[in-house]
Amino acid sequence: MRVFVILPAAGSGTRMSPGSGGAGNPATPKQFLSLNGVPMLVYSLRAFLAVKRVEAVYIAVRRSEIERVAALAKESGLGSKVRVVEGGENRQQSVSNALAQLMSETNCAEDDVVLVHDAARPLIDPLTIERTIDAVVEHGAAIVGLAAVDTIKQVERTAHGAIITATIPRERIVQAQTPQGALCGLLKRAFAEAQADEFAGTDEASLLERAGNVVAVVAGSAKNFKITQPGDIELAEYYLAAAK
After folding, report:
1. Domain for residue 51, yes or no?
2. Is 222 a member of any domain?
3. I need a surface site. Which of 29, 109, 112, 187 has the fewest CB within 10 A?
4. Long-range contact list for 208-216, CB < 8 A, 24+ apart?
5. Where are the alpha helices (DSSP H) in 113-199?
6. Are 231 and 16 in contact (CB under 8 A)?
7. Burial (Cβ within 10 Å: 0-12, 13-18, ≥19) of residue 172
8. Does residue 28 form part of some domain?
9. Domain total for the chain?
10. pLDDT 10s per residue in the chain (244 long)?
11. 95 closest CA partner among 188, 196, 163
């Protein structure tokens, strides 16, 4: 059994940059923003490459960023197991492109493990990665999820906002995080079926569920949050400082 990782990092991250939207002052993709002077993407790479079972990491980026990311990996001493491929117009297409390249280069076996992780979740830790790999081996597919703390309401959208239609028991809810993964054969078929049906999912688990696969949940952490807004940088740096 081999383990491979895909990092979709082709998004523009326009909400993160004060220069976003301005002509001649394009947004910096959030995966290249720095946490304590280190590009966000490097933190994820370090975490996955610290797991000995990981054989290679495929990063899917925009065509214009391929050389930049390859150089970044090399400069950070992480280049030997890193492959940089062209992403797509959205997350699903980026992962699909990387999966196709991975399969072409590695002849990924049915029982090999493929994990997919958001490049904008830089505080993932090796132990959680290890537990996710183990869950995939046991169940066929797994994601990292965080138990809901707040009360969750189901609503009906209206012209003026929303109206509550039900309260969902918190014990039945988890907030999906990453990594998300599956055995290579299951993931390949889930993506193929989605493409054939022109189905767009919100994450890999949604494609795997749709294909009839059981998807296990591995306990996540509040630290493994997705950096989306400018204030999230300060929170991530706080967590990094507290870990020292």
Report:
1. yes
2. yes
3. 109
4. 208/141, 208/182, 211/186, 213/140, 213/141, 213/182, 213/186, 214/139, 214/140, 214/141, 215/139, 215/141, 215/142, 215/143, 215/182, 216/135, 216/136, 216/138, 216/139, 216/141, 216/142, 216/143
5. 126-139, 184-196
6. no
7. exposed
8. yes
9. 1
10. 999 999 999 876 555 555 444 444 456 677 788 899 999 999 999 999 999 999 999 999 999 999 999 999 999 999 889 999 999 999 999 999 999 999 999 999 999 999 999 999 999 999 999 999 999 999 999 999 999 999 999 999 999 999 999 999 999 999 999 999 999 999 999 999 999 999 999 999 999 999 999 999 999 999 999 999 889 999 999 999 998 7
11. 188
Write the CATH number for 50.
3.90.550.10
Nearby residues of 133 by Cβ (< 8 Å), 6 or more positions away = 3, 51, 53, 113, 115, 181
Predicted TM-score (pTM) of this structure = 0.92
In a domain, 130, yes or no: yes
Indicate the length of the chain as a whole number: 244
Domain that holds residue 195: 3-145+176-243
At which residue do the structure tokens 């169940």 appear? 139
Rounded to whole angstroms, the Cα distance separating 94 from 100 reads 10
Give the integer Cα–Cα distance in Å for 35 and 38. 5
> Taking Cα atoms as reference points, which of 209, 244, 237 lies closest to residue 40?
237
Helical (H) or strand (E) element with 234: helix 231-243
Strand partners, 129: none
How far is residue 53's CA from residue 20's CA, in Å, rounded to a whole number?
39
Nearest to 142 by CA among 167, 174, 169: 174
- In terms of Cα–Cα distance, which of 145, 147, 142 is closest to 171? 147
Single-letter amino acid, residue 144: V
Cis peptide before 179 (omega within 30 of 0): yes
